[in-house]
Amino acid sequence: MQQLTYGKSFEAALYIHIPFCRHMCLYCDFAKTARWQSTEVNSYFTGLRQQYGLWKNYFQQLGVKPLWKTVNFGGGTPSLFIDHLCQFLAFVGPDCQADAEISLEANPLDITEPHTTQALRQSGFNRISIGVQSFDPQGLKTLTRDHSPTTSHQAITHALQSFPHVGIDLIYCWPQQSLLQWEQDLQTALSYPLQHLSCYNMTYAEGTPFGRMVRRGALTPHVPDREAEYYNLARKYLQGNNWQQEEVSNWSQEGYACKHNLCYWQMEPYLGLGTGAHGFLTNIASLPQEGIRYAYHSRIHKFCTHQHLPPQTNPSLIWDRRERSHWMLEYLGSGLRTAQGICFEKVTAMGFTFKPTPFLEQARTRGDIHWNSKYLQLKPQEWFRETSWAVECSRAFQDSSE
Ligand SMILES: C[S@@+](CC[C@H](N)C(=O)[O-])C[C@H]1O[C@@H](n2cnc3c(N)ncnc32)[C@H](O)[C@@H]1O
Ligand code: SF4
Asked: What separation in Å is there between the alpha carbon of 400 and the centre of ligand 1?
C-alpha cells in the first residue's frame, strides 16, 4: 500500500449522513429522527458544509488534498431533501474524480414523479438505491413501512428512466415471511432491469422497538437455520439469473458493483460526515499505517452545536486509534464475506504473515475456504458465518513485528 506524501491527492470515498425520516420504521437502528423542522434541516446542511471545509483544512495540514472516488448520501432519508443534496453535491463537486460514483439512498415515496429523478441525474447523481424492502403488502405492513408496492413500482420505473445505475434494497426473513413470499419478492425484483440488488437478513438490534418486542416475546424471529435457507434460496435464484454476488448481502449485474461499498469492505479510506457517520483515514504518510477511525455522535443537536469546530477539537466526534491486530480482525470480518476476499498484498504491507493453521488446512480440504498467492477467499455459503471465520483466520495471520 503506497502512503501519500505532501501535495498528493488523497483518493477516498465520501459518505454524508442525513438523519431525517418522514416516519420511523420499527426495525431500524440507524441514526435518524422523524421529529424535525425545516429550520433544523437547513442548519444541519450548513453544518455539513462547515465540517467539510474544516476537514479539508485538516487534510491540508497533513499535506494531502482529497479527491473523491465515490460520494454517497445515506440515512435516514436523504431523498426527502433533493434541493439540499444537489446544492451539497455542487459544493463538493470540484473535489470529485471526473468518473466518480455519486449515489443516494431514496425512499420510494420521494421519487414517484419523473421530474425528481431527472433533477437528481442532471445535478450529477449517477446511482440510486431505493428502499423497497418488500413488494409484498404483508411484508410492508410487518416492516411498518409507509409506502405501498405501487409506490415502489412508480419509483423504480422513474429511476430506471433517469439513472444508468439503479439498485433496490430488500429485507428477507421478516416475521412470518414464507420461503415462497421471499422467492416472489426476488422474482418481482428481477422483473425490472436493475443493476444492483441488496438483500438484507432481518436484524433485531437492541434499542429498536423490534428488538424490545423480540425480548418480551411479542415478535418471533426465524431461527438461524431457517435464515440460512432464505439466504441460500436467494443465492440459487440470483445466480441462476446471472447475477453476481459481491458480498453476503449485495448482488450486481456484471460491471455494476457498487464502488462505494467496495471501499468499506477493502479497508480503503473514507470520510464520513454528519451525525452517527464513521470515517476511516489511512494511506496518509503522517497518520499511523493502520489508519485512524472516528465516529460522529448520533445526536443531531450535538452535531449542530459543534459544527464550527475542527475535527481535532470537535467534541461531537470521537477518535478511535486501534491496534494493528484490530485492523486485521476488522479486515477479516469485512473481506471474508466478499467475492474478492482478503488481499495478501494489503495484509503483508500491514506487517502480517499468513501461516495456515491445521483448522484452515482442513477447511481448505473440505472446500470451505480457498487461497492462492494473492487472495484468501471463503466459499459464499459460509459468508453468512463470517464472524466465527474471522476469529479462526486471525490465528493464521502473525504480526511480523512480534
Ligand atoms: C439506512 S436504510 C436507508 C434507506 C431508506 N431510509 C429507506 O428506508 O427506504 C438502508 C437499508 O438498510 C436496510 N435495513 C435497515 N434496517 C434493517 C434491519 N433491521 N434489518 C435488515 N435490514 C435493514 C434496509 O434495507 C434499508 O433500505
Ligand atoms: S429504514 Fe429508512 S425510512 Fe425507515 S427509519 Fe430507517 S432510515 Fe428511516
From this structure: 40
